[in-house]
What we know:
Layout lengths: L8 E5 L3 H15 L9 E5 L5 H9 L8 E6 L17 H9 L5 E7 L9 H9 L1 E4 L8 H12 L8 H8 L3 H15 L7 H7 L4 H13 L3 H13 L4 H23 L4 H4 L7 H10 L5 H20 L4 H22 L1
Parallel strand pairs: 1-4, 1-5, 2-3, 3-4
Helix pairs in contact: 2-3, 3-4, 5-7, 9-10, 9-11, 10-15, 11-13, 11-14, 11-15, 14-15
Keywords: DNA replication, DNA-directed DNA polymerase, Nucleotidyltransferase, Transferase
GO biological process, one term: DNA-templated DNA replication
Pfam families: DNA_pol3_delta, DNA_pol3_delta_C
Amino acid sequence: MVNVKQSQVYLLYGEEPYLIQEHKNKIIKKTLKKEDREFNISQYDLEETPIEDVMIDAETFPFLGEGKVVIANHPVFLKAKPDKLSFEHDTDSLLEYLQNPAEYTVLILIAPYEKLDERKKVFKQLKKNGEVINCQPVKEWDIDQWIQTLANDLHITVPKDIHELFTQEIGANLMALRKEMEKLSLYVGEGGVVTREIAEQLLSHSAEASGLKLVDAVMEKDLGRAIRIYKDLEKLNEEPIALTALLASQFRIISQAKVLKQKGYGQNQMKSYIKAHPYVIKMALKRERAFTQQELDQIMNQLAETDYNLKQGKMEKALAFEMLLYRLINIKQNTSVSS
Length: 339
């Protein structure tokens, strides 16, 4: 999914490290033979080195081989409000270089920023004389495609019905997704199939995903599972106060989604009212059907009471959280019996 056009100058910008790294690696592979890479790649941090020094290197003939790659990180002068440095960049030297880039050098500027000031002369010249590549984070709805692409690259099969596990645990972090996919490919081997059981066992767990699992355990009235999830989180040094806040956040979003759904709002409209990732809203809408508004109100009250007791030190933390899980499940059981 990462294609690179041949150019003498590249600008990679955006906040997705995986895409930046992939593009950078592809440019280097296209430009230099493997044996030339040790001596003919220079790297600079433009928060510490003036751009004019980088231009001198770009114009210097390669030490060995036919070409060289010069990488300049953090070109702060491309931002609308550049960071204050102990020196000033002579951007005219870059503008002059862009008019006539050295044919033996490939220059890569890496700007890991959300936005650049496209009105600036330097940006316009980079766009005119080089290749500008957007490396912004991917959207949640594109993750299925990325899972499939990475699975094909690694020669493994990941069934579509377990893609949700990856989104739940990793979100839209491509670097983390790549690492998890590589780990799974080592486990199942070339041509292997990643089953749900394997994914659940091997995928790294995030606190947010574990929070959703705790919600599901409450929803399913499964105290044993809820305690097991909590014990796993305890091993990761997750504090009961933080976990209580995480549960409160999850149930608050579920409650908000329920209220907005009853008012006729769709998932896209809810984004204006619920300050959360679209995937979180999607998951909340799946879960709100399992709770009445009365149950959600009681759950939020119980969470607020536990939060207060934990912060006041009125009960041992681990015990207080386990009691919380018991009470939340009891709310579900009592309403199920009464209905």
